[in-house]
Amino acid sequence: MARDILITPADGTLVFSGSSEPLSSSFIGDDSGSVTLYLEKTGNQSFGIEGSGSTVVKVDGTQGRLFSITDEMSGSIFSANTIAGLPVIEAFSDNKVTLGPYSSPLIVDTSGNISGSATSTGSFGYGYIDNKLGIGTTSPVYNLDVTGDLGIRWRASDNETLVQFDKSNDDGRIKVYANNSLTSVIHGNGNSYFNGGNVGIGTTSPTTTLDVSGSMRSTSETITPSAGLSFTWTIDFTESNNYLLEMDKDTILSASRDDRCVGQSGIIAFRQDGSGGHDLTLESKFKTPRGASITWDDGADEINLISYYVVSQSLIAINYMGNFS
């Protein structure tokens, strides 16, 4: 195949001449002294550099390297604008690619992983990940798997915080806000609280601070039922404990049915409120000694005590210890 040859006429132009139509050139300058080289030919045009060794094409400007391409299979093999302050595109022989601002480009490594500057920001119309997303981990197990001291905060359009997930020492917390003020906290190993309204268990429309639709069970401490209808208090006797029930309504005393309850014992105190007059009904499994009776005093602020011993799942022996005002 015939090769074009370079002919330099006296006028300074370049003419590539050979078996095909010559490819001519022209130099055009401007007032600043810049000169532009144009290669002109009718029809398809091409420019080729061939050799038996490595081939390199470089274009340099006053600020540095503007463009380079090579078939040397080491280091950078293609680049455009590798000058500080200009956008950069660069491909390397190990398949790595960089794209973007010179100081903090987007990098695609040899495994296809994408990374960039830690301070990079941006926006997308929408996006999705068709697998698992790991933050701080390269092997996510869940759809969103976060490892490390990271927090997640959900803000409203007016920048007010709504929900926040974070950690305290080695346990997790969920914080809920209203009007940018913290109202509720669920703490894995600390105090949890709800200050934003009523809490319902078994009901979607609680009317009191804690509104329970159904029976309640307690292993210890004090229970104060709300006023109104009779209240059923179910005690979990799986451990020996003393109990105090603040009575402001008629109360039914029940007990859990569990083999672990057998052998447990303790004292139960019932304290009437300031108005008194509230009755106590014992579930049938509570039995007093033969011939014994309970003289219940339901006067205002009266305290009645009984001791208990769990004989079996169906029998709890109790003894009335008297009343104290």
Characteristic terms for this protein:
single chain, six-stranded mixed sheet, seven-stranded antiparallel sheet, mainly beta, 4 domains, 325 residues
Short description:
The chain has strands spanning 5-7, 15-17, 23-29, 35-40, 56-61, 64-70, 76-80, 87-92, 97-101, 106-108, 114-115, 133-135, 144-146, 152-155, 161-168, 171-178, 181-187, 193-194, 199-201, 210-212, 216-218, 221-223, 231-235, 243-247, 251-255, 265-272, 280-282, 286-287, 303-312, 315-324.
Write the layout of secondary structure elements.
Elements: E1 5-7, E2 15-17, E3 23-29, E4 35-40, E5 56-61, E6 64-70, E7 76-80, E8 87-92, E9 97-101, E10 106-108, E11 114-115, E12 133-135, E13 144-146, E14 152-155, E15 161-168, E16 171-178, E17 181-187, E18 193-194, E19 199-201, E20 210-212, E21 216-218, E22 221-223, E23 231-235, E24 243-247, E25 251-255, E26 265-272, E27 280-282, E28 286-287, E29 303-312, E30 315-324
Written description of the protein model:
The protein has 325 residues and is mainly beta. It has strands spanning 5-7, 15-17, 23-29, 35-40, 56-61, 64-70, 76-80, 87-92, 97-101, 106-108, 114-115, 133-135, 144-146, 152-155, 161-168, 171-178, 181-187, 193-194, 199-201, 210-212, 216-218, 221-223, 231-235, 243-247, 251-255, 265-272, 280-282, 286-287, 303-312, 315-324. The strands form 7 sheets. A 7-stranded antiparallel beta sheet has the order 5-6-7-8-9-10-11, with no helix packed on it. Strands 22-24-26-29-30-28 form a 6-stranded mixed beta sheet, with no helix packed on it. A hairpin with a 5-residue loop joins strand 3 (23-29) and strand 4. It starts with a strand and ends with a strand.
